[in-house]
Amino acid sequence: MAASSNNVPTLSGWGRLARPGREVLSEDLERLTEGKVLSRGLGRAYGDSALPPPGELDVATTVLADRILSFDRDTGLLRAEAGLSLAELNRLYLAKGWFTPVSPGTQFVTLGGMVAADVHGKNHHVEGCFGAHVTRLRMRVADGRILECGPEEEAELFWATVGGMGLTGHILEVEFRMKRVPSPWIQGESMRVADIDEFIARLKESGPDWPMTMGWIDCASRGARLGRGILYRGRWAEAASAPAEPPKRKRRKTVPFDFPGFALNRLSIRAFNEAIYRTHVPAFKSGILHPEEFFYPLDKIHHWNRIYGRRGFTQYQCVLPESAGHGAARRFLELLTSRGGASFLCVIKDCAAEGQGMLSFPMPGISIALDIPVDRGTQELVDVLNRDVIDMGGRIYLAKDAFTRPEDFRAMEPRLDRWMEVRRRWDPELRLRSAQSVRIFGDPT
Amino acid sequence: MRVAFLGATKGMGRALARVLAERGDRLFLLGRDVEDMERSAADLAARGEAPAGSAACDLARPETFEPALDAATAALGGLDAVVVTAGQFATQEELEQDVERARELLTVNFANTVAFCERARARLLAGGGGTLCVFSSVAGERGRKPVVLYGASKAGLSAYLEGLDHRFHAQGLRTVCVKPGFVKTGMTAGLKPPPFAGEPEQVARIVARAMDRGKPVVYAPGPWALVMLVIRSLPRFVMRRIGF
Ligand SMILES: Cc1cc2nc3c(=O)[nH]c(=O)nc-3n(C[C@H](O)[C@H](O)[C@H](O)COP(=O)(O)OP(=O)(O)OC[C@H]3O[C@@H](n4cnc5c(N)ncnc54)[C@H](O)[C@@H]3O)c2cc1C
Ligand SMILES: NC(=O)c1ccc[n+]([C@@H]2O[C@H](COP(=O)([O-])OP(=O)(O)OC[C@H]3O[C@@H](n4cnc5c(N)ncnc54)[C@H](OP(=O)(O)O)[C@@H]3O)[C@@H](O)[C@H]2O)c1
Prior knowledge:
The complex is a heterodimer of chains A (445) and B (244).
Chain A: E1 10-12, E2 18-20, E3 22-25, H1 29-32, E4 39-40, E5 58-61, E6 68-71, E7 77-81, H2 86-93, E8 98-99, H3 111-116, H4 124-127, E9 134-140, E10 146-149, H5 155-161, E11 170-177, E12 179-180, E13 186-193, H6 196-206, E14 212-217, E15 229-236, E16 253-254, H7 266-278, E17 284-289, H8 291-295, E18 301-302, E19 313-321, H9 328-338, E20 346-351, E21 365-373, H10 378-392, E22 395-396, H11 406-412, H12 416-426, H13 435-441
Helix pairs in contact in A: 9-10, 10-11
Chain B: E1 2-6, H1 11-22, E2 26-31, H2 34-47, E3 53-56, H3 65-76, E4 81-84, H4 92-97, H5 99-126, E5 130-135, H6 148-168, E6 173-180, H7 200-213, E7 217-220, H8 223-233, H9 236-241
Helix pairs in contact in B: 1-2, 1-7, 5-6
Bound molecules: flavin-adenine dinucleotide and NADP nicotinamide-adenine-dinucleotide phosphate.
């Protein structure tokens, strides 16, 4: 909790772009959320989704409310307070043969954050988003009432909340269905891929046989090597082919301080990307993997966001729809590299059918996510990329965004009016707001 | 281990109860909010050994102590340990402005906690001995500007536990006086964390080990043992000058 010079406390998302804000914590979410305009989990949204709107300071941080309230060993139905972290859930249940139906690329997220962003994982082409597995939510809505909703009860509120970025109410409890896994280990494969076209072909052809797929792209390469990278695919290992002992928890390293601004430049990014590609030897690997290695490679290093220094960074994640046709991803990457938009990390995923969350991010197509260090050119770069995404009929992911302009978001989101209508029905005065909702939806300050 | 646990609903108590339940210890929960204890009991049951039950016990109401310990002893079929993490905090400014509040805090943290411990100690000794683990604080080590009143309540508690250890050790009573430094819980939310601020899970692991070994005094997290070594050795004129 850094304080700026005039002593107003500031708060930021994972990308470290600070705004005035302060976390208020309590085990008792009913009391905590009273009169608050926004809830916040572990702050892993990159941009301003979990930051208060201008004029407000306090957000209700849920992380102390982390109790499991029930678990049915037959059906996997689990109910817990919204601040329970996925890391704790994994620690408790993976060795017992259960896993979350959908996991994002970090386990340092809360259940509330997973619902509010309707997170997707490597298995989107099989399981959809997290919200599809949620059976009930206990919420505090804008008028102060506390109520339950689900796909069969107050369904509109429920589907506006799934992916609704905390703007339809505070999520107090989450009930969802865990999945049985045959072992806690992953049967995985990874391989070098020569360029973007091959990448997309490989992702698509892997889908039917591999429930989990994703790729890392070297964004510093151009021309014939444009979009080269490494494809990862996996499935839960059968008990017979997996080690008998449960996986040990991985030790974490930490980035102890902010890196200086010059540490990350076009050259170091290129060298890093080159190294990852070159050191993937042999070009094809196969074997049993530690689940944390497979799902959460970035979690190995605590506070890795500090390598971006004080200026912070943003993630640009968009989905390029299937309807944009073959070559859309290549055109997008060409646009990116021609603009000099070097990215330290670039992740590509396959997305399948759109879920029922009214504002959920995924749609059938290819998702591309880029980490971009913030500098003077960032706004323009995001604008240019957004224009391309609008032309293709795609959209961006609110949980990552800090720069998209309201008119651009509207152009991407034909679903916005319907969601707004439901939101206004539950919150006519738009009491519940975030820095992001003021920026993108034009909410009052 | 059969453990009567006062304060498992929040903070370090929640974390310690989880460590004990996950390794198979049998708990009986004591606390002032019976409904909320049910939720904590469910959480513990999902993680490990389900608690044997719970009963109302409010440190502000000494008449609840005896029935609560009766219920725990009956449900567990005896007691091997009693843990007290329950306690209250308020800033020095808040307490100075409201003497009645200060009196209440001193009563809960000191007089009533001691009264509870006296009953617990008698039961443990009647059963041939056992562990009495109580959360005091590093705030009780020296009189200090920011924690004059809260610190005094904890100083009294620490002194009581030390005396208890000497008096009943030979009869099989193991007292564990836990002295946490700054730990990030609801109690300290809103205060600015100093260097070495700890997490409740970290403290819980240290305390569970200390309980197994019957360690009479334990600082947690670790670095606070050193910090307090320094603080204890500072001359009075220095303490008067510094803000700590
Ligand atoms: C390394 C990394 C990898 C990631 N990988 C993926 C990925 O693969 N797929 C994916 O989908 N996402 C991914 N994310 C994004 C992340 O999963 C989401 O941003 C998620 O919402 C973060 O959860 P959180 O608990 O940190 O929530 P925060 O970041 O604290 O909050 C996120 C949003 O949820 C709302 N919210 C949080 N709790 C509540 C509540 N109790 N009630 C109402 N609203 C609430 C907030 O208001 C905010 O709008 C990744 C993030 C990181 C840092
Ligand atoms: N956090 C620190 O930095 C720190 C440092 C040094 C010492 N300590 C001491 O360590 C202990 C635990 O602290 P914590 O930070 O974990 O506190 P916490 O999160 O505030 O939890 C306090 C616990 O005490 C219970 N409690 C409070 N008053 C009670 C009463 N009258 N009767 C019964 N139970 C009562 C609460 O129960 P409810 O659910 O009913 O509220 C809660 O379970 C306390 O004794 C504290 O003084 C804390």
